[in-house]
Amino acid sequence: MEIVRSIMSQYGFVESDQKEKADIVLLMTCSIRDGAEKKVWNQLKLIRSNSVNKRQIVGVLGCMAERVRHDLLEKRNLVNIVAGPDSYRDLPRLVAVASGGSNAINVQLSLDETYADVQPIRVDAESRTAFISIMRGCDNMCTYCVVPFTRGRERSRPIDSIVEEVRRLRDQGYKQITLLGQNVNSYRDMTSMDFPMNPSTTEDRVPGFKTVYKPKSGGLTFTSLLEKVADAAPDVRFRFTSPHPKDFPMQLIEFIASRTNLCKQLHLPAQSGDDETLDRMGRGYSRDLYLRLVDDIRIILPNVSLTSDFIAGFCGETEEAHQNTLSLIREVGYSFCFVFPYSMRGKTRAHHRLTDDVPENVKARRHLDSTTVFREEAMKLNQKLIGTEQTVLLEGKSKRDVAFSHGRTDGGVKAVFDNSKSQLNPGQYAKVLITEANSQTLKAEFIRETDL
Ligand code: 5AD
Ligand code: SF4
């Protein structure tokens, strides 16, 4: 939306906070699970029924536009514009077409669109945290996933334009930047002339991990990007999401260890802890290989905070397979896990070749099991932090009690402390002493203001 806001404002459109009266309403959508799409359909009905503007134009943007383009346009009374993830530059034209009374559609996917030259317009500056998109698309083709079909081929935004955006955010007082993409750590800037002495090779991947695509080589890798951004803004914390476990060479982990402003928090989406399920998912690794990666990472980053994604009830997942996932979650000990009940998506390999045979109530129970187990482990990890000093970046005031502020530790765990005497603002770092912990939040005492 930050990119869309930027493009639309260049053409003179002004943002309104009155959805019912606005001339144009644009919805950014997600297709990853059926639930996400259902929400959009409900919203679309609500928008039309609440509108007081008879000529209001409604546009559906993003992955759902790409995936269900025809269904959307058939609902002529609900939708006027359908714009896929690579066609936002075309929005002003699409609006003009729709204003003339016709439906407007552009769902062309691109091999090189990264919106590198579009300066995103951010509206929530209060927390002093921002996201920067560094790459788009995905070539991994995990069998359950619709992303490669809705987002298209993987492509990386040139390093220089990312560094420029980092500098701009730093100058505006931002203190945390999350580098974003569908597969961030396979980032490769092939456009830069600034090639390293030893061009990266396929060894950028972790040995043993497999890909369905021909391994890429050359160009500037994710490690080079991290080096450039970390140098460009030494007082800004960097995080990144979402990576794939195959693209974590030890050189990258060692580099993260060497810089204080690269957070010691890694998202390592496992999806399952069962070999046969992982194989059907097409993830390119076994449980053992994944666990070896975790061990290797923990040798270099002993205090790293790991997070993950899991799918509950994928095609053919037996009770035993599910137990293997629970035991992996216990063995690794994540500070947070996103768990999703499996949702069959059209076009995917799973849709063509596998059967969605786990009943919904079983998916729901397994989903709950995985969440319960990760919380038990997260609780233990958080309790180990009691008595330690942590550096917290302030993000805002607590909703329950304004004397309290909240922020995040380097590991990404939420921490709350009494800020009434210190009066620090969002964007400032505080050294705090952790005094209490549950599975999601830490309570702390303020010690002093600090630099990163
Ligand atoms: N059903 C459920 N979860 C899915 N994810 C991707 N596709 C599906 C699907 N069809 C999850 C994966 C991924 C996260 C972003 O969404 O866990 O890592
Ligand atoms: Fe989907 Fe992520 Fe797999 Fe790409 S790597 S296909 S985005 S789950």
TrEMBL record:
Domain of life per record: Eukaryota
Radical SAM core domain segment(s): 124-380
Cellular-component GO terms for this entry: cytosol; mitochondrion
Gene Ontology BP annotations: regulation of macromolecule metabolic process; regulation of primary metabolic process
Residues annotated as domain MTTase N-terminal: 1-100
Cofactor list: [4Fe-4S] cluster
All residue ranges annotated as the TRAM domain in the record: 383-448
UniProt keyword annotations, A-Z: 4Fe-4S, Iron, Iron-sulfur, Metal-binding, S-adenosyl-L-methionine
Entry-linked Pfam families: Radical_SAM (PF04055), TRAM (PF01938), UPF0004 (PF00919)
GO molecular function, one term: tRNA-2-methylthio-N(6)-dimethylallyladenosine(37) synthase activity
Keyword Iron-sulfur attributed: yes
Xref: Gene3D superfamilies: Methylthiotransferase, N-terminal domain (3.40.50.12160), tm_1862 like domain (3.80.30.20)
Function field: Potential regulator of CDK5 activity.
Recorded family membership: Belongs to the methylthiotransferase family. MiaB subfamily.
Alphabetized PANTHER family for the sequence: CDK5 REGULATORY SUBUNIT-ASSOCIATED PROTEIN 1, MITOCHONDRIAL TRNA METHYLTHIOTRANSFERASE CDK5RAP1
Protein name per its UniProtKB record: CDK5RAP1-like protein
